[in-house]
Amino acid sequence: MISSTVRVPVAVVLLFAGVVVGVLTYRSQQEIAEAADALTSVRVQLDAMRASLNGLALAQRGYFEPLRTGSLNQQFQTVRRTSDALNAQVTELRTTLTNPAALDGLTAIETALSDFAASDARVRTNLANDTYFAAADLVVSAAAGSLRAADAAVGSLQDTLAADTNRRVQRLEQRQRLAISALAVVWIVGLLALVPLPPNSALTTTRDVPEPAVIPETMPAMPELAPADATPVSLVDLTAAAKACSAIACASTAANLRDVDRKSTRLNSSHVKRSRMPSSA
Q: Whole-model pTM?
């Protein structure tokens, strides 16, 4: 139990702690939601990159089917536009991602796209020189290998971002739990301090315990009684004492005899002696 002057500061501290923990909890929830939204957005972009890589492979194979898919120049333009779009997506992701592992994944994607661009240039050169077999071999081997490497880098990047987001969410949730636990402890202690205890409680009343008697090491000396002034026996007149006792005894005996005589006289005058024999006899 605390005094009334301290209750107001304690209540203010409890209110402030509740506001702080509420703000921290709200910010943690916002950061968790932002991390989930960012991961979803990046996943959408990476899925679009994978679709673009598949389209890039199909467009390059279209070099050898001009009659069914259009002219060769149209196929060249399709591959170039798709490759440029992929590079633009990688550049955009590089501005948003800060995880070193994710940046390394983007670098791997850029390297694979650069290898594909070099292979595609060689394919075009072979097609211009009418060396179709060499061009086809480059498409199947070098260009396809670069596209597979880019696709694998995109998948690895997705896994890295998912793991990093999960770790971040776990840290935020742990911070949120710690803040709530600290608030609970502060509130419990504060409420216990604010709640008044009954006056007869064992925590507020103290029993008066008598102090033990202190026994002195040495007892005080008893005062000596002065002897009463007594007359020596040799000075008492024994003869006079015997006469006085005899006179007292005689007076007592005479008084007793007078009482007996008075009683007997009263008994004789008040009672009539009856004869047991009939009067006729």
A: 0.58
